[in-house]
Amino acid sequence: MDDTLSLTVNTLFAGIMLGGFFAATALGVTIAFGMLNIVNIAHPAFVLLGAYLAILLNRWLSMDPFVAGLALAPLFFLAGYAVYRIYYLCFERSGQDALRGLVFFFGLLFLIEAFLIVAFGVDYQSVHASYTDEILRWGSLAVPLRILVPFGVSLAMIVLLRQFLKRTFFGRAVMAVAQDPVALRLMGTSPTGIKSCALGLATATAAISGAMLVVIQPIQPALGREYIGMVFAVCILGGMGSLYGALAGAVILGIAETTTATFFGPSWAPATAFGLLVLTLAFRPSGLFSR
């Protein structure tokens, strides 16, 4: 009985920690899909790109992965800005963003994956930091720092981003641009400019999420595809455009995945995200914390 209780407690705690990482990874989709109505399925590929670049900075400059993620964030912002400009000129401006825009992001996903294969190969790669092998213990509870530190960084990123979007004109414009672009124009603000910067901000979060990913687990180029279902499940489960809702949805998903993997086998865990997504769409399409 004691062993079962200890296993259950450790599983639940690991699920909460993993949920923090899921929330950080889904932040970009929460902004792009939840606030801008842009189905950016290439976001996990940008997360993976950030992970590989964090590995390079760690090896070349002995830079901590999270410091590397922060250093890469401005570059990723510019990449996201450029991606939206291309998307707007080729698809959104002509009203062809529904299907062809989705194909555009699919193509971008596979382009990034192909680049990573050519540049880094197909073998798993990892990063080493001072805390990646450390484990904190409180009685029967064992907490690896490699998941505790990303959880703390994720919480800080979500809170700061939520306050930024809530308290600045740009943030309020981002939350309003998909609902009433005409009103923004009447206020002298370009919806296209707001969306460009917003997708840049969404992509910048991928750099930091990539640093979290490579701290938590070894990576290989095709890993990004495994996170597509997860990030959209978190976005929809938490409520479209709600950052705190995304955190709550991610924690629920993290607990569900770790519980499934522990008690029913790891092979069932990947289906958890899609199962929760289907149930949410069936019984509460607006999500837990819809705006």
Q: Could you please describe the fold and organization of this structure?
A:
It is a single chain. By secondary structure, this protein is mostly helical. The protein has one domain (2-122, 132-283). The chain contains 11 helices and 2 strands; from the N terminus they run H-H-H-H-E-E-H-H-H-H-H-H-H. It has helices spanning 2-32, 43-61, 65-92, 100-120, 145-167, 169-177, 181-186, 191-216, 228-238, 243-263, 270-283; strands at 135-138, 141-144. The protein has a two-stranded antiparallel sheet. A hairpin with a 2-residue loop joins strand 1 (135-138) and strand 2. Helix 6 (169-177) packs across helix 8, helix 9 crosses helix 10 (243-263) and helix 9 packs parallel to helix 11. The longest helix is centred in the N-terminal third of the chain and has 31 residues, at 2-32. The mean pLDDT is 87.
Care to give the gist of this entry?
The protein is mainly α.
Strand and helix layout:
Elements: H1 2-32, H2 43-61, H3 65-92, H4 100-120, E1 135-138, E2 141-144, H5 145-167, H6 169-177, H7 181-186, H8 191-216, H9 228-238, H10 243-263, H11 270-283
Antiparallel strand pairs: 1-2
Helix pairs in contact: 1-5, 1-8, 1-9, 1-10, 2-3, 2-4, 2-8, 3-8, 5-6, 5-8, 6-8, 9-10, 9-11, 10-11
List keywords for this structure.
mainly alpha, two-stranded antiparallel ribbon, 291 residues, globular, 11 helices, 2 strands
